[in-house]
Amino acid sequence: MGAGGRMTAKEREAQQLCRNVVHRVPTEKPPFTLGQLKKAIPPHCFERSVLRSFSYVVYDFIIVSALLYLALCHIPNLPSPFNYIAWPLYWMCQGCVLTGIWVIAHECGHHAFSDYQLLDDIVGLVLHSALLVPYFSWKYSHRRHHSNTGSLERDEVFVPRPKSSLPWFSKYLNNAPGRFLFLFVSLTMGWPLYLAFNVSGRPYPRFACHYDPYGPIYSDRERAQIFISDAGVIAVFYALYKLTVAFSLGWVIRIYGVPLLVVNGWLVLITYLQHTHAALPHYDSSEWDWLRGALATIDRDYGILNKVFHNITDTHVAHHLFSTMPHYNAMEATKAIKPILGEYYQFDGTPVYKAMYREAKECVYVESEGDKSKGVYWYNNEL
């Protein structure tokens, strides 16, 4: 009989408590600098290759085309009930691969695709517009997110609220049905609501919208590119309209609409889990600095989807530290800096379906824990 069989009830309880302890990211200023982290990474990790970057675009589009061929030429000919099984498989697989394309477009916005800014912007504009994302609009707001990660006043997305700012109905949703509702709405409508109405974004003095060139999100020098972003999205909507006229609305929804819904769901979930965890602090202006904010993120494990998503999931800490690094070098860079980061590096291998519910349950609002942690805020859920 193993030692566990001789444990008393109290010892088993103590062991379980130890397993459930959340090891928080230290909030003291790190004993290392960004320069020291960069020196630990092999120099070639920062090199961007046009050919290699395009190879991932071509690879993804080959898979997208193969799945599209199956959906157009073979799934409609399957007998019932196999066609009812094949369509959801197509939607999920196509949505996952398109999420990988979304990630490449996101790299273009960070100037991590090539050494040529114009090329990055052209590729990013085409890829993001195809997925109904306003490229420059999101590029600029996302850049500000990277500049202000972990700041309660200036971060751009998934900014947690203090308990006093929660809406009145929060206590009625702090239960299993309420959490499932929150996750359902977030995964299905969260991305378009963020783009159109800045839902879950930082508060602005007036209405903020990613499609509004004159909105408070953007400066005067950025406005022309916001018009270009809008034009890209409008062009794709027009193409979808022409396809609807030619083939029907149901055809467009089956072939394009549902996979896009999957993309949007993955995007929200990935971002949510990267920045929402009981171990991650947030800071007000009295404590925040860029490096500690960048370290207030977490890597996750999505299994085989890590590769499909070009490792944006399990190399997110390195990405926040060095956002112009191409994704194909991020794994090597992560391994190089982990020994230096020590406790400042966070990884959670909890299965995603469990993690999403757990974070929705435990991370309801943030609060400071007294004078010793003044300016530092942690997640709580007691309402």
From TrEMBL:
Taxonomic source organism:
Asparagus officinalis (Garden asparagus)
What is its pathway?
A: Lipid metabolism
Q: Which domain of life is it from?
A: Eukaryota
One Pfam match: FA_desaturase
Q: Where is the Fatty acid desaturase domain?
A: 86-346
> Any idea what this protein is called?
Fatty acid desaturase domain-containing protein
Q: Which GO terms describe its molecular function?
A: oxidoreductase activity, acting on paired donors, with oxidation of a pair of donors resulting in the reduction of molecular oxygen to two molecules of water
**What biological-process GO terms show up in the record?**
lipid metabolic process
TM stretches of this protein: 54-72, 84-106, 118-138, 180-197, 224-241, 253-273
Q: Which UniProt keyword terms apply here?
A: Membrane, Oxidoreductase, Transmembrane, Transmembrane helix
Question: Where mainly located?
Answer: membrane
